[in-house]
Specification:
The structure is a homodimer of 334-residue chains.
Chain A: E1 3-10, E2 23-30, E3 37-46, H1 51-54, E4 75-82, E5 92-95, E6 102-106, E7 111-112, H2 129-141, E8 149-152, H3 158-169, E9 173-178, H4 181-190, E10 195-198, H5 204-211, E11 216-221, H6 226-234, E12 235-243, H7 263-267, E13 271-274, H8 284-296, E14 304-308, H9 313-321, E15 328-332
InterPro entries (chains A, B): ADH-like_C, ADH_N_2, ER, GroES-like_sf, MDR_fam, NAD(P)-bd_dom_sf
Organism (chains A, B): Baekduia soli
Keywords (chains A, B): Oxidoreductase
Chain lengths: 334, 334
């Protein structure tokens, strides 16, 4: 018997900042699972900055969302019917078909996750895609090494807050930027950052120079734009940049200007390296092996900004792009 | 008995494009060599784009030239007096105190070079700093690997022309940009490039797209600015950029705008790496071992643009920044 479900579809491609009218809540019927498939009731879904890129009709590393089709993204759910020997009713799984209440999909496209003492939503954040992004970006792409002074932009976000904590656990000096005084206090008081500043208070270059008088060695960038230019200016010789994202430009309607100090990349022998997390899937076991024990004994903590109700997922996403989250922005469904 | 010599001093720091009045020809006395020193009569001197940076009063990887002091730079000369057991009168040496007719310096600060069948000036170009720059930049910084389509900007210059030939010898498809139809013909007809275009004929992005319909994998950049933006657009996934220089901006009086497509670095997982040749001195023997035999049997060729007379060195340097050279720009002294 088909299941009634609600889903969020892309109604129109956003121009600039997404509007409520770019999204549409639709009721649909979800079929029963076929052989090898499972029916999942989603309990949590993720909104992530990268989704903004998929809403535009632009060639990229993932195809754009289709107008009139449901959006996609990370989700956690409970198996409510199974035609697969690998998943039992009651199992908690993660998968990539969020933005909807129910979904039928091959069991093989899901991952069963441990929720013993771990909140299911953590698998969308610190133990999920953002967690792996932070881990691989800092260690493999950024090549963190002894003595590095680390700067992370968007440091109070899902990725940035773990980057900072992973670096602190390794004994590094860590500087973070965020977009409010409350977030800055969170970085300093809760996450143990050595220095942090509100990038809205003045030029990023000035704040960074004050926070890092001897310069920085590794920049983990989630923001782009002015942050990247300031970091290129502050990086020491042989410094490295892990380019994870550039949220400052995601709603731009004109190409944002690039750093005006690119010439410094030569003289300082800097390396800038872009990455996307799916190239680093083999590092997931290493990340889990470090982060799970650290979560259990409190050496790593995380915050979530929880929005209730599938119908509010577009508002959550819009708020994410405005920086309304501290830590991971998640939507609780049903 | 002191030797009368002429030298070029920096008379004023250039603002924008250097003027003749920023340089001054001065007659000085050069003392006799002391213990361990040699007196050298310079026969050739180099003008190189990086010297423009040293004429500005800006913190960089080499200290700025001093106003009122002689300029410095690569030179080849003949030993005319020696107080060192390591150098004989008649030896040909290279050193870093060009822009003058005679110089006394410690023998240990010079390198004796082979001029058997090799023109002395080649040690300022294909076998000198530009040669090592091309070799290390292409192989080590750019990480040339099988199947790479290579794009080099300023391809008719001292560095670019060797980058292209080294890549061709390894079987790669090589595309070059240059600033005149004659240079483009030189790349295609003399150096074996697969494609080349005059960047003054239209947008670099359009010319590059036409020359590399399947994109590029490695960009060796001597020019910066529009070239870098076009290359970021044309690079395939996991592409690499060896940032050697950015001559397009060396005379800029305002910070040149950066690439507006930096976001592509993330999605394509690009790596941009700046370098300076002095970090790669250990690769000199490898470069010499490859290039000398290739020069002797004609698999590598090089051009020089020769300006006669020390007094014309400022004009040579100014012409270099305007792209008036094909191959290495050198000044013949005395």
């Amino acid at each position: 018997m088909p299941t009634r479900s609600r889903e969020i579809q892309l109604a129109a491609r956003p121009h600039g900042e997404p509007k409520e009218s770019d999204f549409r809540l639709v009721e649909v019927e979800v079929p029963d699972p076929g052989p090898g498939e499972i029916l999942i009731r989603n309990t949590w879904m993720s909104v992530d900055p990268y989704m903004r890129g998929r809403m535009s009709d632009r060639k990229s590393y993932v195809p754009p969302f289709a107008v009139g089709a449901p959006l996609e993204g990370g989700a956690v759910g409970e198996v409510v019917a199974s035609e697969s020997e690998d998943r039992q009713v009651g199992d908690t799984v993660t998968h990539q078909l969020g933005w909807r209440e129910y979904v039928v999909m091959p069991a093989a496209h899901t991952r069963k996750v441990d929720v013993d003492g771990i909140s299911p939503s953590a698998h969308l954040g610190v133990l999920g895609m953002p967690g792996l992004t932070a881990y691989a970006g800092l260690l493999d792409v950024g090549g963190l090494k002894d003595g590095d002074v680390v700067f992370v932009s968007g440091a109070a976000g899902a990725v940035g807050s773990l980057v900072g904590q992973l670096a602190k656990l390794r004994g590094h000096t860590v500087i973070g930027s965020a977009g409010s005084a409350a977030k800055v206090a969170h970085l300093l008081d809760d996450l143990g950052f050595d220095a942090a500043f509100n990038y809205k208070d003045g030029p990023v270059a000035d704040a960074l120079a004050a926070a890092a008088p001897d310069g920085i060695d590794l920049f983990f960038d989630n923001v782009g734009g002015e942050h990247l230019e300031a970091a290129i200016g502050a990086l020491n010789d042989h410094g490295r940049v892990a380019l994870c994202g550039a949220i400052s430009g995601y709603n731009a309607t004109e190409p944002p200007p690039g750093p005006t100090n690119m010439f410094l990349i030569v003289g300082k022998r800097l390396t800038l390296r872009g990455f996307i997390v799916r190239d680093h899937a083999t590092r997931r076991p290493d990340m889990v092996a470090e982060v799970v024990p650290a979560l259990r004994d409190g050496r790593i903590t995380f915050r979530e900004t929880v929005v209730e109700g599938l119908e509010n997922a577009p508002a959550a996403f819009r708020g994410l792009l405005r920086g309304e989250n501290t830590g991971k922005m998640v939507v609780k469904i049903g």
